[in-house]
Structure formats: C-alpha cells, structure tokens
Amino acid sequence: MIHEPLLPLPHDAAELSRCLANPEWRLFSGCLYKIMIKGDDAGGGETYVLPFRPNAAQRRFIERLWHRNIILKARQLGFTTLVSVLWLDHALWNADQRCGMIAQDREAAEMIFRDKVKFVYDNLPAPIRERFSLLRDSASELLFAHNNSSIRVATSMRSGTIHRLHVSEFGKICAKTPDKAQEVMTGSIPAVPTNGIVVIESTAEGRQGEFFELVQRARNVHTEHRILTPRDYRFHFYAWWQEPKYRLDARTVPVSREEHDYFDFIEQQEACTIDADQRAWYVATRQADFLGREERMWQEYPSTPDEAFQASTDGYYYARDMAALRKRGGIREVPVLDLPVNTFWDIGNSDGTAIWFHQELRGEDRFIGYYESHGEDLRHYVAHLQGRGWLYGAHFLPHDADHKRLGDYNRSTRELLQQLLPGQRFVTVPRVTSLMAGVHAVRKHLKTVWLDAAACKRGIERLDGYKKKFSRADNRFIDQPDKANGCSEGADALRQWAQAKELSLLASPAQADYQEAPPSDWRL
To answer: What residues contact 89, with CB distance under 8 A and at least 6 apart?
Structure first.
C-alpha cells in the first residue's frame, strides 16, 4: 500500500477556520480527506492511498447536484467514493443530520463502510479528527459526539428522517431482489425530506424494474427541458469514453473496420471524439472481461443511455435477439398501411390478455400496435379492436381458445369472439411440442420484423422483460417463464405469430382459394 501525504493545513488559526468553513476547500483542496483506490487507477501497484480530489466526472456531478438524482454510468467511475466523502463531510459540519447509504447486499455494505467511510474518517489530519470524536463507532455507523450527526451504511433504511440518502447499484437490487427495491422506493426514499438529497446510481441491469423506470422518467424530463421540482429526479449519464483512464496503446490492439464504424457512429451521435487509444481499450476490455459479448459491454460500459439498456442479464429469453433488432434499426416508426390488420392474442382467465397488431407487405412483418389489459372480459378487447377503425384480416388465437370456458357462457373463447365479431376470420394456432420450440420460432423470425417504437412500446418492454425462473435450490435459471413481472402474456401473444408463420397460416383464404371467374360471354 502506497501513501501520498495530504497537503499541509494552514498554520494560521484564523486562516484554517476560514478554510474549514468553506465546503469547496474541504472537498477540492486535497488537504482534508484521503481515499483508497486500486492500483489500476493510479498507474500500477496494488492499493494507493491518495488525497481526495474529485475527478472530471465527479466534479460534473457536484456541479449538477439536485434534490433527487439518478446516475446511469459506466463501471468504476468513483461515485460511491464521492458520495461517501460528501455524506461524511455533511455529517461532520452540520448538526443533527442523518446520512445513509444503501448497498445491494451485506458484504457490499460492510466494504463501503470500512473502505469508503470509516477509512476517510480515520485518515483525517490528527488535529481535525480530534475535534470530531465519536459517540458511537459500530460496524455500520459513525455517530459524532460534537453535533449528534451520523453516517450509516446498510442494506435498507426505513426508520426516521434521512437527510442524505445514497442507493448504490440500484439496478442490481431491482434485478436480483425486487422486494428490496420496492422497500427502497416505498420506505427509504420517502424518508428523505424535499430539502434533503437522494442519489441513486447504478450500471444498467435490463429493461425492467424501478431503476429502469426512474431513468426513463428522468430522461424524459431532461430531454423536454422541463423545470425540475424538488421531487423530480435529475438525470446524470456518464459514458465510458468520458473517463480519461480508459485507454490502451492502439499499437497493441487490432481494431476491425466494423468496430471503427461503431465508434464513428457513436462520435456522430454523441458529438464526441473517441481516439485510437480509447478504441483499443474498449475492444481489449470486451474481449478480456466479457469474452467478446457486446451486450455485456453495453451494460457495464455504455456509450449512450439507450445502449446501456440494450444489455440484459442472463435468463432473459430474447436479450440477444432484441439487441440485434435494435442494432439493425428494427424498432422505429412503422406507418399504418392501407392493408388488412392481423391480430395475435394471448388470452388469460384471471391474468392479463395481450394483443399484437400486424400487417404484412411483400414478406415484411410490420407490427403497428400492441394492447394489453387485466381483469377484463372479451367484450372489453372487442370494443378496443372496433375503436381502432381498422379492417381486420384474421385473428390468431392460442391453442386453448377452442376449449377454455369463461364465466357462465359455457362456450369456448373462440365461439365467444365469433359471436362478438361476426363475419371475421379466426384461426387457432396449434400447440407447440414445447415452450422452447415456440421461443426458437420467435428468435428465428425476429430477425426480419419491424416494430413501431411508440405504438408497440409496452409490447417491446414485455419482450425485453420476458425471462426464465431462477431456481435458488439449483442456483440456475430453468426453462420456465417467470410470470411475476407481467411479461409472459405479451411474449406469448407474439409467439402465436411466430408459430403461425412457421405453419404458413398467415396466407388469407381469399389468396389461397382464389379462382379466376369464368369469362363472360361477350355476345350476351
């Protein structure tokens, strides 16, 4: 471990008091706080202890700090370290304050407290630390005797008022322990008053959960240039290419033409410059750390906010397929054509019902709408179809539509729909031998579909979120859908399309059975 000394404190008592009263001096001078960093961040070695001086990303965040903040970021940019110093500084210099940090698990909480809170306090200059004696020094909390303020690190916080709250790796909390994420949203964050500060930060972890929804909401406020209220979240994004240390000698890493095209596209989209050494670092990191899996690189080291959520965790059925769909531009505006509209259904009894709206033009599968609802009978969905005002080609129903009974009607779903929509064509899609056979059909045909970004937004979220159950006993994902997040209905409805396509059921009877009428007798 290599130590670098702090800059000396001012010798004059009046000058020292003036400096200590200035938060900017305390944070930026390098005279007060020390942090522990990995050798990679300091040019080699195992561990370095250095005076704390905010880096470029941290300075930018401090300048934009708001009452509610959400950070979408690349890995290892030091935001947990920054917030640890900010919260400790606030507790030391302000009376009766409660500062809290929530970690994803107990091990992470212990590490943050030991290496990023207690370490900074223990390494204060001796004359300063003597002023701030501890009333309580536990394994998770420091309570200061001079002003009754405290800083605590735990896996959840519910009791009392919290003036400063930091939630670390919230995306991972949402993905792995949704009940804990719900507790953060309903218990911890409401405990912070509007004049307090909340900082939620994480790398991306799929397109489902509270973190994804908070990011999307904050981005909308940001892009629409709306004035923030104290309860609105300010959106902060930090890409990998903004971090100066992410670079390697370009002479040591081959970069393909396709990879250069990707970097050129990011430069154009983000109005930035990604030089040869940065490109070399990106390619080498993807190969070494993630075995070439670009979706993992998007998640951990995103170039853009949208790219961050192209990645998904293991266990999601269509993660790679949806990433490839976005990469080729398959999610975009899809105009409604003057053609018949097909519908593909998944019909629930007590759960939800989902419908995809589809048109086909010269072999192109174009999805122009998606609808779902819960707790409604078939008349609700029929009214929705009629309200769209489209001419329908065929309605494709799941295999159990011919025998499922709803309510007291004693009729199948198909019979009820035929009664509600007389004269329209209904097709029951045969059952596949296994779920995975249907999943593979979807994967096969997703390569050529077009989804309307706005009209199919909810359906796209359902495809992104369609995942397998996780067996804690076996510590692995199993090939059974996890229906807890509500994505199975939308995914199953699209599966009816892929299975129908595999069986060539999309050709209308009018096209299949068409016969030329006999020529009329010109003499009559």
So the answer is: 23, 26, 27, 33
For 210-226, b where at least 16 C-beta lie within 10 A, e where not — what string? bbbebbeebbebbeeee
Cβ(341)–Cβ(391) below 8 Å: yes
Q: Which amino acid is at 74?
A: A
Strand 141-144, strand 150-154: pairing: antiparallel
Question: Which uninterrupted H or E stretch holds 476?
Answer: strand 476-481
CA 176 to centroid of chain Cα atoms: 13
Q: pTM of this prediction? A: 0.67
Comparing CA positions, the residue from 354, 493, 337, 505 lying closest to residue 425 is 505
What residues form DSSP beta bridges with 334? none
Beta carbons of 206 and 216 less than 8 angstroms apart: no
pLDDT tens digit sequence for 241-269: 999 999 999 999 999 998 999 999 899 88
SS3 of 245-282? CCCCCHHHCCCCHHHHHHHHHHHHHHCCCCCHHHHHHH
Looking at residue 444, its amino acid is K
Tens of pLDDT, residues 393-427: 999 999 888 765 545 467 888 999 999 999 999 99
**What's the pLDDT tens digit per position in 350-397?**
568 999 999 999 889 999 999 999 988 899 999 999 999 999 999 999
Mean predicted confidence (pLDDT) in 221-240: 92
Buried b (16+ CB within 10 A) or exposed e, 348-379: beeebbbbbbbbbeeeebbbbbbbbeeeeebe
CA distance 57 to 65: 12
Beta strands at 449-452 and 331-332: parallel, antiparallel or unpaired: parallel
* 3 state DSSP class of 451: strand
Query: How far apart are the C-alpha atoms of 162 and 149, rounded to whole Å?
Result: 11
The Cα-based distances of 455 to 159, 172, 364, 381 in angstroms read 42, 29, 18, 17
Asked if 477 and 471 touch (Cβ cutoff 8 Å), the reply is yes
Nearest alpha carbon to residue 263 among 323, 303, 294, 203? 303
Instruction: Report CA-CA distances (Å) from 408 to 374, 404, 405, 412.
Output: 19, 12, 8, 11
CA 248 from centre of chain:
29
